[in-house]
């Protein structure tokens, strides 16, 4: 059975790959085709860590994986090795008491956290004051707002400019103090294909061994 995961690189200021955001794909077509974000994340985790070789997939860097509120509250991330991942909190997740408690548990276990698609310095401040990475949507924010986010949250959090599409955006982000970058200017997501071994065949192999 064929399985698929898309990956998009995240680069540092030296343009070295720090890690990859892993994205759900149901086929070799490079587009999101899921409707349930929780199930999509579970599929990404299963394909990346249990069917594919995560070391080859992220090249020794960290895997940024989107998490819904349901997955955060269920402590689903605890099955993943803390040094291999960054738990990315989707923009639809509000930092209420339950979510913040779940993030605190993740921090205690050594996980790094990221807030996704941030467009305003006042957006969910308790959440932004908790995470290690703030991913700022560069297509949806003005230069003034991009700078305001830096002034409020750096250097406590690492600022990541995402949806970067032009050299001018890269130059502006670097000058403001952004330390990580992601977007079509550097690379589009690429689909990695693998093969999943059915569970009954694994059982046959265990019996033979």
Brief descriptors of the model:
alpha/beta, TIM Barrel, about 210 residues, about 25% strand, 8-stranded mixed barrel, 8 helices
Topology summary:
Blueprint: E1 2-12, E2 17-24, H1 37-51, H2 54-58, E3 62-67, H3 69-73, E4 85-89, H4 97-108, E5 112-118, H5 125-128, E6 133-137, H6 143-153, E7 158-162, H7 167-176, E8 180-181, E9 190-195, H8 199-208
Parallel strand pairs: 2-3, 3-4, 4-5, 5-6, 6-7, 7-8
Antiparallel strand pairs: 1-2, 1-8, 1-9
The structure class reads alpha/beta
At the fourth level of CATH, the homologous superfamily is EAL domain
Specify the oligomeric state: single chain
Helical residues, percent: 25-40%
Number of domains: 1
N- and C-termini, Cα separation? 23 Å
- How many individual helices? 8
Low-confidence stretches: none
Largest sheet strand order: 1-2-3-4-5-6-7-8
Tell me the series of helices and strands, N- to C-terminal. EEHHEHEHEHEHEHEEH
From the 3D coordinates, which CATH architecture would you assign?
A: Alpha-Beta Barrel
**Radius of gyration computed on alpha carbons:** 18 Å
Overall strand count? 9
């Amino acid at each position: 059975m064929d399985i698929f995961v898309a990956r998009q690189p995240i680069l540092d200021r030296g343009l070295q790959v720090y890690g990859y955001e892993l994205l759900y794909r149901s086929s070799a077509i490079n587009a999101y085709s899921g409707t349930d974000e929780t199930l999509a994340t579970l599929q990404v985790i299963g394909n990346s860590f249990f069917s594919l070789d995560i070391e080859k997939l992220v090249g020794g860097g960290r895997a940024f994986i989107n998490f819904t509120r349901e997955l955060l509250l269920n402590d689903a991330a605890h099955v993943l090795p803390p040094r291999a991942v960054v738990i990315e909190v989707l923009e639809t997740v509000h930092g209420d008491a339950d979510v913040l408690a779940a993030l605190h548990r993740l921090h205690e276990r050594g996980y790094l956290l990221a807030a996704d698609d941030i467009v305003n310095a006042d957006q969910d401040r308790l959440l932004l004051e908790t995470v290690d990475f703030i991913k700022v949507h560069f297509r949806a924010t003005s230069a003034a707002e991009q700078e305001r986010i830096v002034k409020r949250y750096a250097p406590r959090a690492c600022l990541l400019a995402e949806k970067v599409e032009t050299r001018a955006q890269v130059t502006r982000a670097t000058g403001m103090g952004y330390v990580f970058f992601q977007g079509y200017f550097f690379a589009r997501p690429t689909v990695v294909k693998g093969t999943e071994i059915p569970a009954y065949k694994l059982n046959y192999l265990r019996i033979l061994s």
